[in-house]
Each structure stands twice: as C-alpha cells, then as structure tokens.
Amino acid sequence: MPNPSPRQQTRLHAQPSISADRLVLLPSDFRLGVSTAAYQIEGAAREEGRGPSIWDSFAHTPGLTANGDHGDVACDHYHRWRDDLDLMVDLGIREYRLSVSWSRLQPSGQGELNPEAVVFYRALLEGMRERGIRPLVTLYHWDLPQPLEDAGGWPVRVTAERFADYAARTVGALGDLAEDWITLNEPWCSAFLGYHTGAHAPGRRDWGAAIAAAHHLNLAHGLAVAVIRAELPGARVGIANIVTDIRPRTDSLDDLAAAERLDAASNRVFLDPVYLGDYSEQVRRLLGADGLDAVIRPGDLDVIAAPTDFAGINHYQRVIARHDDDDAGPLRVREEPAEPATTSFGWSVIPASLTAVLMRVSREFTSLPLLITENGASYHDYLDPDGDVVDLDRVSYLRGYLDAVVTAVEQGADVRGYYAWSFLDNFEWAEGYGKRFGMVFVDYATQRRIPKLSAHWYRRLISERMSQLEPIGVKR
Ligand code: FCB
Above 70 in pLDDT, residue 434? Predict the structure, then answer.
C-alpha cells in the first residue's frame, strides 16, 4: 500500500489542495483520472503475435531517439498490469485513459485480429471493471503497423480505410468492456512530427505528405466514428486533439499573421473539419495549394464531421509565434517558448493557457462536453536518499492547471473531466526515458513503482472530491 512516508506526509500537509469552494464548482460527473499510451508503457514488443509498428522501426534506428531508447520493455506493463491497476486503486484513481496497440491487435494492419492481443486487452479491461476503474480507450496513439507505413502510411488514403476496419473489429471485440472511445490521439503529431519535421515516427520530411496525412487522419477519425456507432450503439466517441495556446510575439501585422498560420497548421486543420464541418479559409489558404485541396474527395467533409459525444483536448503549452522570413520552413514562423519555461521539456507553465484553450474551443468550435484527455509536465524527478520522490513542481503544476479548469467552468465551459498525463513515468517518444511525466516514478532497472508526492496529492484531491459528492448521493 503506497502510503506516504512520514517525510512525504509532512510535505503533503504543506501542499494546499484546490479549495473546497472551487472544487465544488466542477460538475458532479466530473472525472479525475490519469492517462497513458500503449507503446509508452507496455513493452512486450515482440510477444504474443505483436507486429512491428512505426515506433519500433523509428526507435531502433540509431540517432533518432535520445540515448537510442525504445519501447521494447518500457514499463513492462504488459506483464505487470495487475499490479499497476492495484496501485491505481490504492491511489484512489477510478478513471483511466489508456490506448490499445494497433500493431498488437492487427499486426499486418488488416484482416483478423490477433487472438492473443484480444485476450490481453479483455483481461486488462475486465481487470479494470473488477476494480471499479472506468476505461476511456484510445484506438490509435501513434503505433501504425509498419506494413501500413510500407504501403504509404498516413499520406495515402487507404490507411484511413484500414483504420476504420481495425476500429470496427476492435470495438467489436472489446466494446462490451468499455463505453468510452477515442479514435485518434493528437493527429497533429502523427501528421506533422511524423511526416514534416521527422521528429517522430516514421521520420519522414515531406510537407506535402504531412498535409495529406492530416486529411487522411481526419478522415480516419470520421470513418471510425461511423463504424464504432454501428458496432456499439451505446458508445460515447470522440477524438483527442492537442490544442496549443498560440500567441503572436508582438501586435505587428506580420506577427499576427505568423500566429494565424501556426494556429491554422496546428489547431485549426484538425478542429475545423471535425467540429465546424469544413477547413476554414485560413487553413485552405495555407495548405490548399500544397496538397490539401488535392486529397479532399467529395463527401469527405461530411464523414469527418460525424457527430461525436465529447471533445478531447490535450494541452501542454503556450507558444509564441514570430514572423520569420529566414525560416526555411513552409510556415515562415519562428516558435519560442512562452515564459516561464520551467519543465524539463522547456515547456511553459501557464495555467491560464488551459483556461484560454477551453474557452476558445467552447466558443469557436463546439458546445460538446470537453474532456481534458492529457495535461501534465516532466521534471527531473529523482529518488532521494529516503526513497521518496518529492515532486513539488508537479504538485504545483497540477494544482494550477486544475484550478484553471475550474476557472473555465466558472466562465461557462462544459468541462467534464481531467486525465493527468501520466500515471507512470514512461517512454517519452523521441525523448526516451529521460523525460518523466508520471505521478508514479518508475525505476526502470528494477521496474519498481514509487508513487511521487504528486500521486499522494492527487489521491487526497480525489478523496476530497468524493466527500463533497457523497452527501448529494453521487457515487463514483
Ligand atoms: C503528448 C502525447 C503523449 C505524451 C505527452 C507528453 O503529445 O500524446 O503521448 O508524450 O505528449
């Protein structure tokens, strides 16, 4: 049982919670949870029929990830999931966003599902049900089966159709164990980091391919919504988009236009078609001639705009945009971190950005309930000589951002949940294991899990929340 050590207990007392009169403003069905993704935690990369994904190939290519790190073992969650779920329960966490691995479930990217993967995910979801943990399942968190990349990847249209087939089969196999489904996680990263900057798998550097990928990811989402509804009529479905708070460096017309371009190529290209039914003028002006117009087929926009049940928002940072003619990239924008940039990623910590993003999505894009499907920070956490991880920075980050959620609710946003990134330290993509985002510290040499101070803080917050709800008869 992960009780705080005496020293942690003292520290915890000194760490304020969110005040009760703020916490009570959250809707009664508000979910306080945690988030992870398959490739980042599972390991077992070559076991029980799992096939290679673009992330296996990328991470095993020398020089592409920090220290050559890869997800072969990661947190070994594939073998340790029972203990991990027990730990979650001990920490009071009853809402868990996880992803299932396409390359485990359908290794070749088409055809029958791998029965061993179905057994694994059914056991995992049943394990959650037994423990009273509600799943929110993401179908695609970046692990495209390598055979589909070999056939062209997201820049080719058929990949969207393959995704819909995989989604239908997966929801068919697991749908009795989960009601809440997310089609894609952050298609911006898949398209632009994967095919434009090459910082993420598959590591290609082709602007036109990235734009085509963006549209096909949007299409994949829309096609999947339809098949999920057909398989599981009671399902609640949505997409998790990263929404960055982009601000111009100055109010010069050049900087304003630069910020608008960056917004179009990061936020709008994904939010517009899903929630507004079409790519906006800004997006078409920027990306149309570079390939977007050429890949949109009649009917696509109706497919993409299929009604969803919630809007998933991943939020990490505010970015400052400056016009830069010398920038060789197609956007002519230089991006700078907004101050203060204090996480170990160099990302800003500005809770008001989360309020701003929630208000913007509510006002400009959708009246759907909003779920914050990811938010969190990496710090240089370490196991101290007493065996504790005293991550005061993360506690203050979480307090600030959760309070910013309350502010958005006060201002009228319909926010129904917050899933902190992340439950465990894990494989942070190109950054490898050096970036720790977890509330639970993972000692990778031994696979020991050590709840950080932030996990104890979150547990206390959840229990305070429960005690607010009990008198009005809300269970969960
Ligand atoms: C998001 C990803 C997630 C994690 C966090 C830090 O962009 O969705 O997997 O890497 O960033």
Answer: yes
Q: Which residue has the tokens 């206390």?
A: 460
Residue among 294, 285, 274 nearest 209 (CA): 294
Could you give the residue numbers annotated as active site?
Answer: 186, 374
Domain enclosing residue 249, as ranges:
6-472
Q: Average pLDDT, stretch 177-193?
A: 98
The CATH number that applies at residue 458 is 3.20.20.80
At residue 470, the pLDDT reads: 86
Does 108 fall in a domain?
yes
Q: How far apart are CA 28 and CA 31, in angstroms?
A: 9
Residue among 99, 217, 429 to mutate when testing ligand 1 (max atoms within 8 A of CB): 429
Contact 218, 187 (CB under 8 A): yes
297-302: long-range contacts at Cβ-Cβ below 8 A with a sequence spacing of 24 or more?
A: 297/157, 300/215, 300/219, 300/222, 301/273, 301/277, 302/277
Beta bridge partners of 180: 136, 236
CA–CA gap between residue 48 and residue 394 (Å, rounded): 37
How many CB atoms sit inside 10 A of residue 463's CB? 12
CA–centroid distance, 376 to ligand 1, in Å, is 9
Q: At what angle do helices 158-174 and 207-231 cross, to 10 degrees?
A: 30
Q: Is the CB of 428 under 6 A from ligand 1?
A: yes
Q: Is the pLDDT of residue 1 over 70?
A: no
* Phi (first) and psi of residue 280, to 5 degrees: -75, 170
For residue 249, being part of any structural domain is answered with yes
What would the pLDDT profile of 86-115 be if each residue is shown by its tens digit? Answer: 999 999 999 999 999 999 999 999 999 999
Residue 259, φ and ψ in degrees, nearest 5: -65, -35
The sign of the dihedral angle between the CA atoms of 205, 206, 207, 209 is: negative
> DSSP 3-state assignment of 142?
coil
- Give nearest CA residue, ligand 1 atom 10: 428
Ligand 1 pocket test, pick from 138, 186, 439 with the greatest ligand atom count within 8 Å of Cβ, gives 186
**Measured CA distances, 203 to 47, 58, 243, 451 (Å):** 25, 7, 22, 34
Domain count within the chain = 1
* Mean pLDDT of the region 35-53: 98
Whether the CB of 186 sits within 6 Å of ligand 1: yes
DSSP-derived secondary structure letter, 331 = T
Residue 137 included in any domain: yes
Instruction: Tell me the CA–centroid distance for residue 13 and ligand 1, in Å.
Output: 31
Structure token digits, residue 426: 């894990």
Alpha carbon nearest to ligand 1 atom 4, residue: 428
Contact 372, 315 (CB under 8 A): yes
Residue 22 placed within a domain: yes
